Amino acid sequence: MKIGIIGTGYIGKTLALKLAKAGHEVTVANSRSPENMDKEVLATGAVAVTAQQAAQDKDVIILSTPLDQITKVAPLFAEVQQSVTVIDTSNYIPARDSRIERLEAGQVESLWVQEQLGRPIAKAWNAVLAYSLAANGRPAGEPGRIAIPIAADREIDREITKRLVEDTGFDAFYTGSLENSWRQQPGAPAYCTDLTIEELSKVIDTAEKERLPKRRDFSVQIITERMNGISNKNADWDFILRINRTLYM
Ligand SMILES: NC(=O)c1ccc[n+]([C@@H]2O[C@H](COP(=O)([O-])OP(=O)(O)OC[C@H]3O[C@@H](n4cnc5c(N)ncnc54)[C@H](OP(=O)(O)O)[C@@H]3O)[C@@H](O)[C@H]2O)c1
């Protein structure tokens, strides 16, 4: 498939490496220019382009920027055909992103993203830690393979997203429509807790929507205190996983 990835940070870079290695034709863009692309991102065959080019003539576009950048990239989607599958990886972390009133009022994050882009989207890879995405992928069928929750309204988006998640080394667990995708937002038992499909299916319905923001903010506060910030650079991934499991499950 022809895949454009916008955002090549911890998540976007890993997706570029894995999806190009799996045989897809991958182009990548960051907020700067193709010349400024980190060479590591291109190590398995991805090609650096502008953000406009990453959104042109693709089967799939993966959006992996901070959530508060989505309004900036939205104009790139004006010409994108409805048949293209757009997959968003973002999460709302108020301590890091700018405050978004609709999300504070409880709007489901992926519905907000869909509104900004003005077209259908799918949600995936938002609920896996960057470290786990890079290091913990396994071949299909291997015992203990971690599952990544996905959400989509259209059957075609669901199928393509499932296939690509599997190409990155994880089972895909369908949480339902975008309206239901709060079940994979920060604070929910399915969020960044590295569970198998069987484990996810047991906890998915235990999520309580009104409790997510408080649990998310607790987790961010504890992680920030431990690591003097929430940057990926100095992250203690094992600690984050343990905190998430304790607070969210
Ligand atoms: N880190 C995690 O463990 C994790 C896990 C799951 C989901 N997520 C979510 O996935 C998203 C990406 O996370 P990350 O940790 O990979 O972020 P990151 O390391 O901060 O990288 C963000 C990327 O987005 C690019 N970008 C920012 N604004 C842009 C714009 N206007 N146009 C084009 N590109 C733009 C940046 O470009 P430059 O390189 O030019 O700065 C950078 O490549 C976030 O929404 C995050 O919440 C993160």
Side by side, the strands of the main sheet go 3-2-1-4-5-6-7-8
| The first-level CATH class name of the largest domain | Alpha Beta
Which runs of at least 5 residues are low in confidence (pLDDT < 50)? none
How many distinct folded domains?
A: 2
User: N-to-C terminal Cα separation, in Å?
Assistant: 36 Å
What string, H for helix and E for strand, traces the elements in order? EHEEHEHEHHEHEHEHHH
CATH superfamily grouping of the largest domain: NAD(P)-binding Rossmann-like Domain
Class derived from helix and strand content: alpha/beta
Globally, the shape reads globular
Helix/strand layout:
Elements (H helix, E strand, L loop, with lengths): L1 E5 L3 H12 L3 E5 L17 E2 L2 H4 L5 E4 L6 H4 L11 E4 L12 H4 L4 H9 L4 E2 L6 H6 L11 E6 L2 H13 L3 E6 L20 H7 L8 H16 L9 H12 L1
Parallel strand pairs: 1-2, 1-4, 2-3, 4-5, 5-6, 7-8
Antiparallel strand pairs: 6-7
Helix pairs in contact: 9-10
Bound molecules: NADP nicotinamide-adenine-dinucleotide phosphate.
The site of NADP nicotinamide-adenine-dinucleotide phosphate has 27 residues, from helix 1 and helix 3.
Notes on the protein architecture:
This protein has 249 residues and is an alpha/beta fold. It folds into 2 domains: 2-207, Rossmann fold (3-Layer(aba) Sandwich), CATH 3.40.50; 211-248, no CATH class. It has 10 helices and 8 strands. The protein has helices spanning 10-21, 51-54, 70-73, 101-104, 109-117, 130-135, 155-167, 197-203, 212-227, 237-248, and strands at residues 2-6, 25-29, 47-48, 60-63, 85-88, 122-123, 147-152, 171-176. It has an 8-stranded mixed sheet with strand order 3-2-1-4-5-6-7-8, with helices on both faces. The chain starts with a strand and ends with a helix. The structure holds NADP nicotinamide-adenine-dinucleotide phosphate. NADP nicotinamide-adenine-dinucleotide phosphate (NAP) is lined by residues 6-12, 29-32, 51, 64-67, 69, 72-73, 89-91, 126, 128-130, 232. Residues 6-12, 29-32, 51, 64-67, 69, 72-73, 89-91, 126, 128-130, 232 line the site of NADP nicotinamide-adenine-dinucleotide phosphate.
